[in-house]
User: Fold NAD(P)-dependent oxidoreductase from Streptomyces griseofuscus.
Amino acid sequence: MADETVADDAHEDGSPACLVTGASGYIGGRLVPELLDAGYRVRCLVRTPHKLRDHPWAGRVEIVKGDVTDADSVARAMAGMDVAYYLVHALGTDRDFERTDRRAAQVFGEQARRAGVKRLVYLGGLTPAGVPERELSPHLRSRAEVGRILLDSGVPTAVLRAAVIIGSGSASFEMLRYLTERLPVMVTPRWVHTRIQPIAVRDVLRLLVGCARLTPDVSRAFDAGGPEVLTYLDMMQRYASAAGLPKRVIVRVPVLTPGLSSYWVGLVTPVPAGIARPLTESLRHEVVCHENDIERYVPSPPGHPLGLDRALALALQRVREAQVVTRWSSAAVPGAPSDPLPTDPDWAGGSLYTDVRERAADVPPEALWRVVEGIGGENGWYSFPLAWAVRGWLDRLVGGVGLRRGRRDARRLRVGDSLDFWRVEEIERGRLLRLRAEMRLPGLAWLEMRVDDGDGGVRYRQRALFHPRGLLGHLYWWSVSPFHAVVFGGMARNIVRAAARTRDEAR
Assistant:
């Protein structure tokens, strides 16, 4: 794998080359292997190449470090490319996200034209017909503007406009799943009666790959939807049926606006309000395909596009088999810390609070590591569950991600995975797990867990680190430090005990 560089012989075998942005996200992470299987060479433009390291396809792609708002890094990534996929969006958690999206699209289109790229492909949102753009949600309005900018770039562009994408791990599927499973009786806002046209993620990927083969004379937007038009209420009842749940009782109230609905969704589902809001705002208006022209250019194979029941069944099967490839939380939370690491020299002279715990473990290192790598999600955090739950609720109340994001895989982690309100920053299999906090904090925080197997036997080492931001950060640390003996001390003790139980059960 080329790390942060581009091989000079990128086209030696003559295969068409595709640039994929957003490869660490939900769609991009699934598109890359589809393109590889279709015979394309793939290059990924990512801000943090390290996050792609553990993907099963990482060794088959080139990687360029950069950002879509940085013209120089986009130019390096575009060199020698035939097709470029634009799969990045700011989800509206930043007040200036529309400006950021606009600037990024302008840079992307301009650099594609200069590099002689033959095709741009963009996945946007389906906008309601006849509704003035000023009345659209900021999220949909920005996606529509990005599509226009790319179409005006001078490079032949295909804009796919999809409404609700149904697939294991998608934000729309997770929102539908948890609302339906957790609320047998629901008081719902008026948007549950809005007509929408969902599409299975498998069909989205099929269309994205197919668009790479469009001829240069095709440069336009296409509506992309599944074969059914139904309301969100219909979708909830169909999910209940697919999951073997009783029919849900729905009570509609007119007072829940999209803004209030996002907080309601945030309380009930793992999707935080900052992401739920653009999803619910997009349902204010009917989002139904008004043409199916893409079928002329990318014909559907037998059995496609998938109906809702089949899409739900496939997504549920993936969830039950722990085979979720990417999740909505795969992309980093906007505004979450990304640099520097606690081991970087930038910390010299700065404040860095630590809480260090260490315990001898009379267990094989493999048994201890299984507990470490299995932490979080359904397994919890091995100490004072109420304290962790309260911290998660407080985070949700201030717009954070909370504890309910869970895990992508119940047994194995990879760099970049979200893990409740942490993200996997580093993993050395069998030895080190470093998590970076994505909860709302007045500073930056990490949690490190190590398994050491030396002359003195197996030891579990744990380190919590906090870099305060201003006076509030210092006050925060000193206010919570009295609880560390219970939370972090109990965590170290119980992890070792859990490993011992695993060893005993295996005998």
